[in-house]
């Protein structure tokens, strides 16, 4: 069965999250954003490993959502897709809010695709 336009867009959203997670890993987000550090530390004593575990879990959950509820047409598929959309909208807003609340002079990866955000 061929994927619908909505299903393809959802798959692109999940793949976009994977790319975003790679960006966050490359810029060591767990070193610059306390919530990322907290989540990483909750999963492993090695912050990088905890960060990877968390992000791989999110990606795998996204793939599960795509291949089962969404592609199979479960009644809950729309709820899963909206949930992902809300998280993806909230993600950059959360980075920017955390940056302002923490007034962090260091780089905050993810805020604008890893562009150096230091205040001068």
Description:
- This protein is mainly α.
- The chain has one domain (5-102).
- Helix content is 72%, strand content 0%.
- Helix 1 runs antiparallel to helix 4, helix 3 packs across helix 4 and helix 4 (47-70) runs antiparallel to helix 5.
- The longest helix is centred in the last third of the chain and has 26 residues, at 77-102.
- It is elongated, with a radius of gyration of 16 Å.
- The protein starts with a helix and ends in an 18-residue tail after the last helix.
Q: What is the rounded distance between the termini?
A: 54 Å
Strand content: under 5%
Low-confidence stretches: 113-120
Number of strands: 0
Characterize the overall form: elongated
Q: How would you spell out the order of helices and strands?
A: HHHHH
When the domains are counted, the total is: 1
Structural class: mainly alpha
Radius of gyration: 16 Å
Write down the oligomeric state: single chain
Return the average pLDDT rounded to an integer: 86
């Amino acid at each position: 069965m061929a994927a619908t336009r909505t299903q393809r867009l959802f798959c692109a959203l999940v793949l976009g999250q994977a790319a975003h997670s790679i960006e966050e890993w490359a810029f060591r987000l767990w070193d610059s954003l306390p919530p990322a550090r907290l989540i990483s530390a909750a999963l492993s004593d090695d912050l990088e490993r905890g960060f990877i575990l968390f992000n791989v879990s999110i990606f795998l959950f996204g793939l599960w959502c795509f291949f089962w509820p969404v592609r199979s047409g479960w009644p809950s598929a729309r709820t899963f897709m909206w949930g992902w959309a809300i998280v993806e909208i909230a993600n950059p807003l959360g980075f920017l809010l955390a940056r302002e609340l923490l007034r962090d002079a260091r780089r905050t990866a993810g805020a604008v695709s890893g562009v150096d955000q230091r205040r001068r």
